[in-house]
Amino acid sequence: MASSLRASPQGLKTVDQARIRKSWDRQSPAWADAAKASVATLKRFWQKKYIQAQFFIDICAAVGLDWQEIVDSLESEDWGEAPEVSAFYGRTEELSKLQQWIIKDRCRVVELQGMGGIGKTALAVRSVEQIKDEFEYFIWRSLRHAPSVSDTIASLLFFFHQEQDNQASLSRLVDCLRKHRCLVVLDDLDVILDSAAEGYEGYRELIKRLGEERDLPSCLVLTSQQKPKEIVLLEGDKLPVRSLLLSGLGAAADKILSEANLIYEPKQGQELIQMYRGNPLALKIVSKTIKDLFGGNVAEFLRYNTIVLGDIFTEILDLQFQRLSELEQKVMYVLTICQQPIALEQLRENISSTVSTSEIIEALDSLSRRSLIETTREQSKVLYTLQPVVMKYVRRAYSQGL
Ligand SMILES: Nc1ncnc2c1ncn2[C@@H]1O[C@H](COP(=O)(O)OP(=O)(O)OP(=O)(O)O)[C@@H](O)[C@H]1O
Ligand SMILES: [Mg+2]
Predict the structure, then answer these.
(1) Closest C-alpha residue for ligand 1 atom 25
(2) 77-245 — its CATH code?
(3) Where along the chain do its domains lie?
(4) What is the fold of 4-70?
(5) Does ligand 1 lie within 6 Å of residue 257's CB atom?
(6) CATH topology classification for 324-399
(7) Which residue has the CA at smallest separation from atom 8 of ligand 1?
(8) Are 56 and 72 in contact (CB under 8 A)?
(9) Which ligand is nearest the CA of 280, by number?
(10) pTM metric for this prediction
(11) For residue range 304-361, what is the model confidence (pLDDT) as tens digits?
């Protein structure tokens, strides 16, 4: 038997009838006394939250019921392919923002967005650990291997012990998510946005349905390098669909360097962190290189004034780059050639005259939504550039005859 138990919705109805026969309120101290539990525990019992197994059994016994008929036998959580996140630094603001959005504001769809390796998946794991007890059920599914939407829906319905019946399956899922307060995470949505117009339609519909559904007690959390159009259309600060753009780890990134036992003065650490814009994956990779090739000495590494990408990071950027349109790739190339931040006019001059300014602006917008370009201001002008890691990647990709 599990160490903690909770009631099923049907079970609670049975308990309700039994307590009426006893003339007890739902939070009657007499009932709590009889079960040797506190009134607070009795309250949690009614909220369908987990309580210690012995209290659960005694609360049922006190109204003459067998706990086995009351208990919820569905597994309450399924972590799927979620990774184990052992070391996690910083992100306190992001965690409290997610808590606010999902628990207090009752958002229905929340997207975590940011470039590869910035920590979307890790943040989702930590956030779920903090908030999942507020939900009846929690399910994590990775879309890394581009499952069809019907497979994903089937696997979610399977969790609820529901069979899939072709066309009605999305409606059945929405039904389950309406009846139960569930937290569902779909990790790596990019793969779907990218892979197939066909498959994507189904996921589009899923996001849209959940985003528009009224009074839905459940929440869908998505992680993605780029923002899906559905989110752009439905999101808002006061609306139940929101997205959180992740930037680097900031000062907390220093922990990654110290964890790798690197030798450095604070200033050198900051320089390294800034070079990789606090991207935890990039910093983990470069830390390993510094350890292996420079005896852990950051100053030695910085002397070479170079940027290390590493295979994993290159693969991530490869994927991200391949998903860009021809024009977006061209913009990236021009920004790489220019090296310095440039204004729209300058960008315009370096791109074929058959391309309109509005198309270039759209490309810039799309690149910025993918966290690939950085903007700075000089007087009243906005200037565009790439962050160093991305610039290094593009230069290398073109020199290898992309
Ligand atoms: N706050 C953090 N503290 C320490 N390590 C972190 C943190 N966030 C992420 N990491 C580590 O950085 C690496 C990349 O993180 P993660 O996989 O979450 O990135 P991602 O944004 O989901 O990338 P992708 O777009 O490729 O899915 C992982 O090894 C992860 O453990
Ligand atoms: Mg991820």
Answers:
(1) 116
(2) 3.40.50.300
(3) 4-70, 77-245, 250-313, 324-399
(4) 434 Repressor (Amino-terminal Domain) (1.10.260)
(5) no
(6) Arc Repressor Mutant, subunit A (1.10.10)
(7) 119
(8) no
(9) 1
(10) 0.79
(11) 878 887 787 788 888 888 888 899 999 999 999 998 999 999 999 998 888 899 999 9
